[in-house]
Task: structure prediction
Amino acid sequence: MTASYLPTLSSAPRSFLCPQRTSSLSSATGRRNPVFHPVKPAADCCSTKNPASAWTSARHERWEGDLAVEGQLPAWLKGTYLRNGPGVWEVGSTAMEHLFDGYATLVRVSFRDGRATGAHRQVDSDAYTSAKSHGRAIHREFAHCPTNNPNNNNNLLDRVIDLVGLVTGTSLTVNPNTAVARLSDGRVVCLSETTKSTTLIDPETLGTIGKFTYTDGLSGKSRLLQLLPLQSAHPVVTETEFMTVLPDLNSLVTRRRPGYLVVRMEAGSNERKVVGRVECRGGPTMPGWVHSFAVTENFVVVPEMALRYSAASLVNNSERASFYALDWIPESGSYLHVMCKRTGNTVASVEVPPFVVIHFINAYEEKRHDGQPTAVVVDGCDHNGDPAILDALTLHSLRSLRGKDVLPDARVARFRIPLDGSPYGELESALDPEEHGRAMDMCSINPAYHGKKYRYAYACGARRPCNFPNTIAKIDLVDKTAKSWHENGVVPSEPFFVARPGASDEDDGVVICTVNSDGGGSYTLVLDAEKFQEIARVRFPHSLPCGFHAFWIPDKM
Ligand SMILES: CC1=C(/C=C/C(C)=C\C=C\C(C)=C\C=C\C=C(C)\C=C\C=O)C(C)(C)CCC1
Ligand SMILES: [Fe+2]
Result:
């Protein structure tokens, strides 16, 4: 590998790693100076030798500057890679306990002319700013329940106060720490699982512009007893629309069966319109957790997992369910529902073996010779139908069990849903899970193949022993094989596929992934997607927390 370093400030990291001595630097290259804002001074703030850096809170509110490039970035790679994820787990007297609880940290790497600039910055959500001003977290996160919450008593008034909190969304998190997406009108949003957390950001400065407010009243703002404060964290965004799934919690207060609303929002609009409602088959009262879902050309596939929202935990903001805000109720059944995008009708609803899929990979239709769809095939990262993965992602496990083989097994699950009225769907492993070390999550595909028959998926896999996925895997769903990238002790985030402009092969492009290295330190890796070999890495001057999901914004031609 040829290495070429940009002669920038970032190649002299010791001079600006410490936040106490950052302000007077000037760039020899004439480029913009790095900007450095400490979260709080830390005793080891100049050290990058922290093997648990992936799970260590970001030390600086924000930083931006030039990045050192090792290797050769493709000349065609022009645009901005954005990554979101939890990055601050300690504020004042609060120390969060779960990976999903951390306050949103954005990372940006912009590639132009073989060079790279980078930034990271905390999202100024109400959850984060209020935690800083109160000296403790005051919102309910996935696992974190505000401690000295006065609503601990079970009297009727407290229950009513909690319910009002749920309807108005004031107690649940507004921390958009999961995904980032550019809408087709150019607005860039960070998202998580509460509708109120959706936040507009500036993709260049990573500054928080403000809340993305839906104007439809669906989330309970204008209509009392509209219990729709939750959403899938992964909307499907196309050139014309934004589509998502809202678990319908109205069954908490009505006799209606629980269900899901599929909603769509046109480009440029803030108004979601209901496409249709899917009724849950299981229950009794709560829909299954829907972090993501899948779409095909004509259909939306809504999962109903036996891992269900916990009414008690959502309504009483200091109560924990068996899995944090979720209950595992295998006897309630596991289902997949298929809704027609055009009519909003549910055209298939099948029972399937238990699955725990946080992230669906893709879906496509099988068609008859006359083009009529006969079945829907859906692929997801399945934790072998076991919610134990949620416990494996506590910060204690991640920080203390490094090198221990405690990561639960996972696979690429392939579901087949017949469209002939059959009551059952099929479920099998798409390839031998040993191919990818029995770990599988944080997936992406070539976006041109969304909803279509496809061959390749990119995801995090494992080289065992490990307590977190530690490889980047390219899954070939036709040959049923996997290629892997791995280095000792690494913690990768979602590998994100970016197609070469003008490409015709599905894997003609690069895979971009930000990685925490063994002894601390972070870099963004660029792999040739076809060969699945490293072509460049772009180093940050200090370590960043491991994040979740990425997005690519190409430069305007
Ligand atoms: C889940 C619910 C809530 C909040 C969720 C939040 C804030 C974030 C969820 C993030 C997820 C699910 C990330 C998944 C990552 C998976 C990884 C890294 C897997 C690795 C495996 O090997 C609420 C809104 C608090 C309440 C409802 C439920
Ligand atoms: Fe996700």
Observations:
- The longest strand covers residues 60-71.
- The chain is about 10% helix and 35% strand.
- The helical segments are 14-17, 126-134, 156-168, 311-315, 388-392, 395-400.
- Confidence is low (pLDDT under 50) at residues 1-34, 41-47, 148-153.
